[in-house]
Amino acid sequence: MIMLALVMAAGAAEPPSWADEARDFALGPVPPTGDLRNMLTRHIVERSCALLDAAAQRRREAMARGAWESWRDATRQAVCEALGPMPFGADGCPLNIRAVSRHARPGYVVENVLFESLPGLDVNASVYLPLAEQWPPPWPAIVIPVGHSAKTRPSYQIPAQVFARLGYVAVTFDPPGMAGEKRAGNDHFSDGVRCYVTGHSSNRYFVIDAVRCIDYLATRDDVDLARGVGMTGVSGGGTTTTFATVLDDRIAAAGPSCCAVPNAQHPVLDQYAPCAETLAFGRFGAYDDVDLLAAAMPVPVLLMAGAADEVFTDEMSRTIAGEVAASFRAAGFADRFEFFLDPGGHAYTVAMAIEFAKWMDRWVRGGARREIEIDESALEQLPDDLLACHPRQDRNIFSVNRDMAAALRGHRSGLPLAEAARAVANAGEPVAVPGARTGPAALSWFHHVQEILIEPEPGIELPATYLVPAREGWAGAGLLYFDERGRWTDLRRQGMLAGVSGFLDEGTDGPAVLTVDLRGWGDSRPADTKYDLAGWGARERWISYVSAALGDHVMAMRIRDGLSALAYLRTRPEIEPDRVVVGGHGLGGVIALHVAAIDGGTAGAFTIDSLASFESLAAAPSYAWSHEAFLPNVLCHYDLPELAAGLAAPTLIVNPLDAQKNSLSDEAAKALYEAAVQRGAGLELHAGPGAGPVAGFVQAAVKR
User: For 113-125, what is each residue's pLDDT tens digit?
Assistant: First the structure.
């Protein structure tokens, strides 16, 4: 009995510790090395700062070598190329000047006039004139570009009146959009971003109006431009001043205010939701705000700022002033740069106007600086209707860019599609197999489900889910899938991807499915930051515009992510590399077409509920797609129907969507993809909602 008890005791196992099991629980995503919500933002910030550091180093080295002129000319050329065609002066279109009204006021006269900056594009100018009996003409002139505001606001009316009372003609005008008379088709957020796809910057429309004001002034007998013209403005008006100064040699003195800071501080590190016009494609690799101000040399620049500015802070303003002063000093122009810090906030004050008038006295009028006193009680706020010009509304950023997009249909680059897609995506050759970390393969009925982290480059981790038949020794085809909604969207609840794989079919032959969250999608959707509290704030805007300024747009990054994921999938021992189909939903479909075009070796490609064409984003009065959809320069090379038509592999387009994310009709879809169908490119087109054709298409594609 004692022996039996001992045997029984020795054979008894300890009961399982479920707490231990819980600690080892591994189902779910592979733990990333960092916070995926900040991954894309951090990546863009770090790369942007590195480029801006390199630009600063080039400038400093050029100044140290005494090569400021060649550096300046290269910077100006980069600005010209980014903005696109900007005909002014002798190259400009006819001004077609139309007088609107004239009003005599105490101490000055204001005339309202219309003229064209581009054909059909009106400038609604208010011209403030000195009193002839006090200041005999001809008068020197100052152009005052308006910021994200209207010419009727105090920051523009009051300085113009000050300048007129001091013997200067002053011209103000509304910028595109904002709060003035030129709103229709000129929203600098929704219409400005459209310009990326046609390969130019919406800043073109802000700057061309300013320099064409000089063309207008040149037609007046009562204006003296012999010594050039001055230009000054606040906020966006200061930005316009800065760009115009490096483009137009007629500007003899510049006074940007509350607008210039090191770009690393704003909008990169402070995460401010910026404006598309300030961030031309590739800007950070070519010039910072410091470079723009220094590239004005030898034009005298008076940089002004408000000590209480809420965004362009005192610290930022002092930092950039020190950098610019060092460049002017190194080039031998120390006396041609000054910094004026007003105690006020984000506004153009009377004190700033007086300082700029003194600057003009010195560099344009040619006399000694005056001691100026202004009776501020005599300055007035005119009613809006007194300054109204009623410009035409049919020509604007939207309509001009729309026409450019249409014209590009017949003027593509001519590069082979794969080469063109590589250029747009910054995709080198060949694509390296990425690193990857895998979780355990968990059995789910007749498949293994495995979570993976794909690492296409340092600092970037792409969560992926792999669904593969669990039969021993299985080998076969693969389906690579991208979905902006998240990688599990078409898997869960036996969704489309589960159905394509034969999820509940014991005898399924696949294909295996790899669905991937490209950077910024799904589990890596970026977290909001402080400026996203603003009505105009949005992560997608910051990501799209700042990555464009980086010269590597977020959609280009995602295309390369897709190529890396394809390279990884082909390394799986059970996958037959030439039997991989690539597909995607929404913007994921755009990525899938690019991956197939660049790779050239997929067995097929398909899109579901995807953007039908980039041109539709430029041509539609409004759109519902993310600002991240505006892939820079793409229409210079191809549109999506052309990309689909050029694929060697079979292609399926299911429910293509217009700019408003509405389904195209059968007729509209056939018309858009007519060339692809006529070429016999193996393209199947299914208009209308539903993913029904996908399973059959994939099975047929992998059996070819």
Answer: 999 999 999 999 9
- Look at residues 154, 220, 583 and name the one whose alpha carbon lies nearest to residue 380: 154
pTM of the model: 0.94
At 330, list the tokens. 């190194």
Read off the tokens for 474.
């299985």
Task: Count Cβ atoms below 10 Å from residue 624 Cβ, excluding itself.
Answer: 12
What's the one-letter identity of residue 612?
A
Give the whole-angstrom CA distance, residue 248 versus residue 352. Answer: 23
How far lies 550's CA from each of 44, 79, 263, 531, in Å?
8, 15, 11, 20
Query: Distance between CA atoms of 168 and 480, rounded to whole angstroms?
Result: 66
Cα gap 323→291, rounded to integer Å: 9
**Element at 451 (helix H, strand E):** strand 447-457
Say if CB 263 and CB 52 are below 8 A apart.
yes
CA distance 641 to 169: 53
Cβ count within 10 A of residue 577: 15
Domains and CATH numbers, the chain: 80-380 (3.40.50.1820), 436-703 (3.40.50.1820)
Determine contact, residues 271/529, Cβ cutoff 8 Å. yes
Give the max Cα distance, the chain.
130
What backbone phi and psi angles, to 5 degrees, belong to 367?
-105, 180
Phi, psi of 651 (to 5 degrees): -135, 140
Q: Going by C-beta distance under 8 Å and a sequence separation of 6 or more, which residues neighbour residue 209?
A: 117, 123, 145, 173, 175, 176
Query: pLDDT tens digits for 259-297?
Result: 999 999 999 999 988 889 999 999 999 999 999 999 999
Return the amino acid letter for 299. Answer: V
